[in-house]
Amino acid sequence: MGTDRPAKGRLREHVFRIIFGTGTPAGRLFDVLLLWAIVISVTLVMLESVAEIKLRYGRSLYLAELGFTALFTVEYLLRLWSIDRPIRYARSFFGIVDLLSILPTYLGLVFGGMHSLMVIRSLRLLRIFRILKLVRFVSEAGSLARALRASRRKITVFLLVVFAITVVFGTLMYMVESPEAGFTSIPRSIYWAIVTLTTVGYGDIAPQTIVGQALASFIMILGYGIIAVPTGIVSAEMVRTNNDPGMECMSCHATGHLDDARFCRKCGAKMPLQA
Amino acid sequence: MGTDRPAKGRLREHVFRIIFGTGTPAGRLFDVLLLWAIVISVTLVMLESVAEIKLRYGRSLYLAELGFTALFTVEYLLRLWSIDRPIRYARSFFGIVDLLSILPTYLGLVFGGMHSLMVIRSLRLLRIFRILKLVRFVSEAGSLARALRASRRKITVFLLVVFAITVVFGTLMYMVESPEAGFTSIPRSIYWAIVTLTTVGYGDIAPQTIVGQALASFIMILGYGIIAVPTGIVSAEMVRTNNDPGMECMSCHATGHLDDARFCRKCGAKMPLQA
Amino acid sequence: MGTDRPAKGRLREHVFRIIFGTGTPAGRLFDVLLLWAIVISVTLVMLESVAEIKLRYGRSLYLAELGFTALFTVEYLLRLWSIDRPIRYARSFFGIVDLLSILPTYLGLVFGGMHSLMVIRSLRLLRIFRILKLVRFVSEAGSLARALRASRRKITVFLLVVFAITVVFGTLMYMVESPEAGFTSIPRSIYWAIVTLTTVGYGDIAPQTIVGQALASFIMILGYGIIAVPTGIVSAEMVRTNNDPGMECMSCHATGHLDDARFCRKCGAKMPLQA
Amino acid sequence: MGTDRPAKGRLREHVFRIIFGTGTPAGRLFDVLLLWAIVISVTLVMLESVAEIKLRYGRSLYLAELGFTALFTVEYLLRLWSIDRPIRYARSFFGIVDLLSILPTYLGLVFGGMHSLMVIRSLRLLRIFRILKLVRFVSEAGSLARALRASRRKITVFLLVVFAITVVFGTLMYMVESPEAGFTSIPRSIYWAIVTLTTVGYGDIAPQTIVGQALASFIMILGYGIIAVPTGIVSAEMVRTNNDPGMECMSCHATGHLDDARFCRKCGAKMPLQA
Known about the structure:
Distance between the termini of chain A: 40 Å
Largest interface: A-D, 60 and 65 residues
CATH class of the largest domain in chain A: Mainly Alpha
Largest sheet of chain A: none
CATH architecture of the largest domain in chain A: Up-down Bundle
Strand content of chain A: under 5%
Structural class of chain A: mainly alpha
CATH topology of the largest domain in chain A: Four Helix Bundle (Hemerythrin (Met), subunit A)
Low-confidence stretches of chain A: none
Order of helices and strands of chain A: HHHHHHHHHHH
Mean pLDDT of chain A: 78
Number of helices of chain A: 11
Oligomer: homotetramer
Shape of chain A: flat
């Protein structure tokens, strides 16, 4: 977001500073109002799905919905209008989220109103993704994301291994257990293996035979033990990134010197002794 | 609590030292007695809620309850009387907990006795919060609290992300699964997503369709994996606070000496002995 | 165990070396045989509890049981006889475990045979504790135990906090939910809170109301998050103990020097430079 | 695999480089094709186990199955032919997996067709182990495997302790709970203890008595707490392996230089550039 710039023109620059910026009182107020609009709008979508509430307040909810859609539409258009490269914004993560926040309602209006097709009604539920607009407000996410990105490959390997384990054990359980216990097909048995390995354990499918229970015990203990792996990966990464950048050299500004370094590792200049 | 001081007057100072202090034998004895009073009192509230026990021992429990309330009332009043700034104490965390420990019983007495209004009876259950008085005895909590406080923001971000995930996946499941499987509304589906992501897995709501089970598998593995994030945050924080820089040498300012070092590891100068 | 010494006399010393030691081929053979005896004996106790197996092989199992009891009795007596301080051994952890391994069978013989009193039969099941004899074979447990011992206080505080949370939320759920959902008393509601906070989630008790499910969601996310605390404690402790003992001083044999130390931190002698 | 060499002869060397190697474009293409073949083949086995799909597409699935078997047979034979020590390959882990991937189909053809013997069909499911061939593609697994191997003994001790705990508590629960609650034998009670300790919690077996629920609560909190142990072990190990000692200076032998250091931090001498 740091490289975004306002489009030319006084009004546009002003609007840009309010909508995209947080440095002015007006910009901060806009953020707070937007935050509340998102939270209320998402809550309304949730409430609408409860049968009793829809029966009683259906009409009011629909009107409120139209209002919020109008609001978010204005916000979206203003963003497009005030930024210098609107296409780039429209194709960015936030641009797509902003568009998805308003599109379902319009689709519902076009394709036959509120109560018609199931597909359209389902689409309208996608308005709940407005919650992703909240991510804009998260500034602390950076160091978390960095630690995750640095461990990306190790985590992928871990997930691959987990997947292979569930496939193998799901198949074994399908061979060992009867369909009556719920192991009716291999995909379903793999589903059970995932439920068990991740220690979720619904209990809708559960082994009945001795051999099945022994296998299940093995998967459980495995799942209980290997959760240590992603945890260890992320912990180690965070311990590493938590470590100081180290002393800085006065002449070349290189960092990463240990506390007792006496010469700069980059330019060889003498380092000052630590006070 | 360290800046609390007794009110003026000999008796008050004496009482203060017994009630708030732990340095004298009387103070320690008071703490032990209070500890037992809290534990027994909380146990009685629990027992009273078991139907059979209440039927048989209801009267004795009620009398014991009155006795403990009297005891805690005296304790509360003595605290108010012996401290120099009673208002500040009354508005502190422990002051409020101490008041809440006795208030419900008195409300029960005033508003129509023991067996009358449901609301009042519920309020009386709040006496169970006396358990929070135990926190007073916890001195080791400091470093835990510090580590948690230092990671506060990262944990908030993490919880926000977790909440956003559950909202999005709860809605998707509501669209995909039928109400018969338990996904009757978005809030309920979000509840299911939380139950699944945290690997609790009651099993009262469980996906039945292939698509639903695939989505559920994804949430489970996600939940199994991202638990590494808060764990990594706290681990890294604790490793960091565990890492003392160590003592510093007075003549060459080298650091990294263990607590029992007697000579500087850099210049060989004598280190001061630790008190 | 390191300070145990054989009783005087040639034969006793010889027996001691076989039973307590692992340095001679005979000592190692004894350990392997004992290991198998424990494993088979524990397996037999388990099998005896399966109704069909007991019906068919009850008599053989009983005879095998008598045989193993005789074997472990001889082992116990030989240990008492060959050690120089038998009382100390008898009162040690392993002494008590060794006694408990044989006592239940004798109690069963004395108090009316195999099929009589329920209490005695239950006692006989305690033979399963023979599994604890296996702990003797675990030599790697040291560093684990050290890390746990060092974090003992923090873990106690953590468990106290967890217990307080479950008491408070169990009571709240008892107030909010109906007995029909399974929340029939405060102790039972606390049991539910523990099941939920630890992410076990049986599902035999589950909230039905919106408020109850909201509270439950809170506990779940709390439980999902605070598992980071014991994990962080133990990780930090292990990272700390994993760190090298450091260089050793040639003149006073003190350890704990960093790699770049030039003077001993204990005696001030010059340290050799690392090659 | 690093010490494998091609058999003599031009063509064999060429084939070897494609099948076993990843250094040439052809070798990489082969790997990608093989990967897809495995994934599709495994998917087909899964789909075949779903009753409705088998009914409709049974014949096509059977033909595809024959095709994949032919393909993997050719691959297996080419591997045997192009390597210099075919026996060693055939007896290696992947050699056996490769053989197991094709054997069940041939057995099915010989012993009476596709729908006949249940045992043969079960064998055919072993083809699923083809997914283990995916491990070949994982290069990042190395550091994970190293950390796990380094903690191998501690993890074994941990698993032994976990097993001992479940045996002891399973037996106690068998003594305390009635068979009606599902605790019909000690092995089944131990199974329950594993389900509970690992926080899976199916709920098919759940304690009903107060004492049983108290014991269960204890196991849950224990399981919730000791998961910190494997996590701590692996985290500590990963932190350790993450901590490079860094480059060493050639003239003063000081360590702790980052990879991009150009001057020694102790004596200021020039460091060699990293290749």
